[in-house]
Amino acid sequence: MPTTSTDTTPAATRAAVILPWERPDRDQDVRAAEARLDEAVGLTSSIGLVVVLSAVLLLRARRPATLLGSGQVESLKAAVADKGVTVVVIDARLSPGQQRNLETALGCKVIDRTGLILDIFGARAATREGTLQVELAHLEYQRSRLVRLWTHLERQRGGFGFLGGPGETQIEADRRMIGDRIVRLKRELEQVRRTRGLHRSARKRVPFPVVALVGYTNAGKSTLFNALTGASVMARDQLFATLDPTMRGIELPSGRRVILSDTVGFISELPTELIAAFRATLEEVAEADIILHVRDIAHPDSSAQRSDVHSVLTGMERDGMLDAEWRSRVIEVLNKVDLLAEPRTLPHRDDIVPISAMAGDGLPELMEAIDARLTSAMVVASYRLPIHEGGAIAWLYDHGEVLERDDGDERVSITVRLRDADKSRFAVQFRSLLATMEEAPEA
Fold first, then answer.
1. Which residues are noted in the entry as Mg(2+)-binding (predicted)?
2. Is 397 annotated as a binding residue?
3. What distance in Å separates the CA atoms of residue 373 and residue 211, rounded to the nearest whole number?
4. DSSP code of 149?
5. What is the pLDDT of residue 112?
6. Quick one: 100 and 135 in the same domain?
7. Hey, which end of the chain has fewer CB within 10 Å, N or C?
8. Same domain, residue pair 369 and 382
9. Is 242 marked within a binding site?
10. Does 263 show up as a binding residue in the annotation?
11. Residue 240 counted as an annotated binding residue
12. Is 30 annotated for ligand binding?
């Protein structure tokens, strides 16, 4: 039987969350089902609905008409009526027919996991790009479900006067209008992506390494972002609190400056419409020199969440968005160590750093780990530059770590640690200067 609460919130906001579960055979599946149900309840609560009914329903087989078994539907109908539920969230992907049949059987609105996540994204997107992406995903989702919205309407009449034959149906008209809007949205999104590309190119001309935060939703990415940058990005104990990428510059212990990027949180079974629509948002991850994978180490399902994040990143690699070496750029950040019920020794290596973003524990070690990772990917070069070439000398200070400098009467001997890409840019930008002298051997 479903579990219920005694909440007395008005019926207009009452919701039920139902998780159809097909894997009841092993002990870990029970734990996984409970964690998944908790996540679904959190998602539902995050859009202002009050969950007064929740349950895991074991499926022996998927029913084509309703997904759930007939007995489960009847039991759920009685529980929904008893608690005055007006919205039932099915934490699974429903076909349009299944959604329509469940609404008829239960006598209330039914939304599936995809619709729920789309509603959350629609409420949270703030930037132009985020808004366009969410609208595009919504329209692509709605287009497949128009049949359930317009079955009660008759044909419209086409043509003029008495000569016009039967026109297109209302569903065809709406499908055409949605199709036209999708084409326009994709055009606008492409323009936004081109603009982002120009911004990215501008950053490359004055290049700073990019450090991207990724992780499961609500893992604490925005809290960490704020702690490292002093910014005020919205950080709440709420799923999908951040949807639009945010960037700030920070200074590492070595004095090197990097750009820190906060990105949208990942989630299991992300709707396919959103994977496509948020492709541009994830481009910041693809461009990153370092990927900080922030994990909620206190979450009971932390290992499964890690697998979900890696699954998305692997999919990006498969689609050509990430190069095959992305794993070598990952530092795992084990966040929320202060919430561990039983303190235990956590690994602390170059690629794993335990922290508490809220309490500030471990942040200096994390900054040093970022610094060390960037340093390991750098090369050391030495130059003898004319003393009056202040622009070239300043460029090396801005883009590298000066290890040694010796000022002579006419020339400056300077040894600097640079990213390989910056060394190449220096060679291109000051080609004519370097052509007049021999570059000293690398240290």
1. 222, 242
2. no
3. 11
4. T
5. 92
6. no
7. N
8. no
9. yes
10. yes
11. yes
12. no
Six token digits for residue 222: 């925005």
Beta bridge pairs of residue 87: 15, 109
Domain around 311:
208-375
337 in a labelled binding site: yes
Whole-number pLDDT of residue 238: 47
| CATH code (residue 45) | 3.40.50.11060
Q: Based on the fold, state whether residues 214 and 260 are members of the same structural domain.
A: yes
- Phi then psi for 287, rounded to 5 degrees? -90, -5
Query: Is 229 annotated in some ligand binding site?
Result: no
Q: Which of 323, 242, 241 is nearest to 288 (CA)?
A: 323
| pLDDT tens column, 145-172 | 765 444 444 444 444 343 444 445 666 7
φ/ψ of 142, rounded to 5, equals -65, -35
Return the axis-axis angle of helices 96-106 and 70-83, rounded to nearest 10°.
50
Determine whether the annotation assigns residue 218 to a binding site: yes
Please state the separation of Cα 208 from the chain's center in Å. 22
Report whether 226 belongs to an annotated binding site. Answer: no
Reading the block at residue 73, the tokens are 């539907």
Give CA–CA dist 281/130, Å, rounded: 8
Contact status, residue 55 vs residue 19, Cβ threshold 8 Å = yes
Tens-place pLDDT, residues 92-117: 999 989 999 999 999 999 999 988 88
d(CA 106, CA 88): 9
Distance of alpha carbon 305 from alpha carbon 311, whole angstroms: 10
pLDDT band at 16 (very low <50, low <70, confident <90, very high): very high
Is 222 marked within a binding site?
yes
Backbone angles phi, psi at 148, to 5 degrees: -85, -10
Residue 423 is assigned to a ligand binding site = no
